[in-house]
Design a protein that fits this description.
The chain has one domain. Helix content is 34%, strand content 31%. It contains 2 helices and 3 strands. The longest helix is centred in the middle third of the chain and has 16 residues. The mean pLDDT is 78. Pfam families: WGR (PF05406).
Length: 62
C-alpha cells in the first residue's frame, strides 16, 4: 500500500478493475502514525463495500 521515503510516509491507493489501467492517488504524511490512520480508514471504507455497492473489494499487491 505504501512506503517510507526519508522522514515522509506515503500511502498509495489504486482503484479499478484488475488488469485495466487504474486510477491512483498518493498521499504523503509527516509521520508514520498519520499514514497508518489514513490507511486504516481506507481499509474500513473498503470493508463496507458489500453494503454500499454489493461487491466486496479484494486487496491486490503488484
Amino acid at each position: 500500500m505504501g512506503g517510507v521515503i526519508g522522514s515522509v510516509s506515503r500511502v498509495t491507493n489504486r482503484l479499478g478493475r484488475i488488469g485495466s489501467h487504474c486510477q491512483g492517488r498518493a498521499v504523503s504524511f509527516a509521520s508514520e502514525d498519520e499514514a497508518s490512520r489514513f490507511a486504516l480508514q481506507l481499509l474500513r471504507r473498503r470493508a463496507s463495500a458489500p453494503k454500499r455497492i454489493g461487491v466486496a473489494h479484494r486487496e491486490v499487491s503488484f
